[in-house]
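During data preparation, we tokenized the protein backbone, and the record follows.
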Amino acid sequence: MSPADGWLSIGELARMSRLSVRTLRHYDRERLLAPGRVDPRTGYRYYSREQLASALRIAVLRRAEVSVPAIRLLLQDPGHTEVVLAAERERIEREAARKHRALALVASLAEAEAGGLAVRRHWIEDRTVLWRNGESTAESLDSDVTNLVTALLADASSAGLPTDAPVVGQYPATLDGVVQFGVGLELRSPLGRAETATTTLPGGTFAGVDFVGPVALLPVAYHALFGWLDERGLAAEGPFREYYLTDPRDVAADAMRTRVLHPLPGEHVPG
């Protein structure tokens, strides 16, 4: 069997499509591009010249980071090309955003370790807050907190309360499995509505780090705070508090200011 027979060996197809033999074998295993013929005696794989176009198309799609399952759908049903590629575009954009956040986290961590994030002591009075409890996992905590804060502010607005008061979140030290957390809006005057859920956050002395940047990069602040506590032989047992010093509705994500706090039992440093 030879090219003159109208068939291409796997090596010839590899050269003409600028793919490796190993890649073509992988495409076969993934059911993207099976050989048109296999010699029963030698096991050699042969492809028709029409399959060269398919090989080139698959190569372009893979270079564009279209997933193997999506390519399989495109090959099986070209009529759904627009829908499949739109879904892949959204997936790639989400993945790019995730990688961008990861790169920003690495850069911020390096910057924090080089310049250091200052840890300061803060005295906080007892605070009465409009309060909502929630639960989440480490993977979805950021979005779940955002949703709960949105609901909290809506409740405050319905109750005729000012929504420009400080917002605070409280979180456990360890984010393992399903975790309980809460968010609150500080109240400037007592409420007259008994049915509105409030609680008192106890005051005291706290070690705190002020961080400027997206909430997704807050692990940088926690890193600095954990290190500070460890150097002093103090356990990071929590609960941690996060005070959101700027309103995300008013500033860009990169300009968000958040204060991360951990209680220091036994210390009293009035502000």
About this structure: The longest strand covers residues 127-136. The chain has a mean pLDDT of 85. The two ends are 88 Å apart (CA to CA).
